[in-house]
Amino acid sequence: MDPVDETPWWEGLPYATEVVSFVPGEGSGFGEQAMPEVVLGPPQGKGDRAASLDVLSLGDGGEIVLGFGDQTIVDGPGPDFVVFENAFYADGDPEQIFAELGQVAVSEDGETWVSFACDFTPDDAPPYTGCAGWTPTREYDALEHPTLSLEISGGDGFDLADAGLSQARYVRIKDLWGVGATPSQGFDLDAVGILNAE
Predict the structure, then answer these.
(1) Does the pLDDT value for residue 7 go beyond 70?
(2) Which CATH class is domain 18-194?
């Protein structure tokens, strides 16, 4: 018999390639049966009006660390990487965002971390600057757009300069919102992509 080719269709595209660690929080569970593939490769966005179900719910306070294989996020013009959650606009109204926020941190070695400032209270209105989980993910063909841009993909962009780093190999996301019911409580991670890569 010929060996089964387990190479993902998105290999070589600028997305996370490995789950380094996952510590689920209370109320997690949705998407865990599809780990790790559910958070690797491109997102499965549904646009401004709908939420993707191709996600991993982190649970209340849960956190995940993703790696990028041979690819390195580098500080370039504008945002350097993008985090995709399944946020959407209720009734298509950008003033009514269904958001589940997470704090993002980056590391060069997987041991020393620098977090992006994500300061908010549950009563705050968007924008939630420095946080992930509040910008819808657009529908797009990852093969037709092998170079990412926020205009095409949506999602929440992050600039390494804001963390004082010139490069990073790992991204950590920790749920801050804690909303929802078991098994889909907390931040729902779809994917992480690189905007400026080396």
Answers:
(1) yes
(2) mainly beta
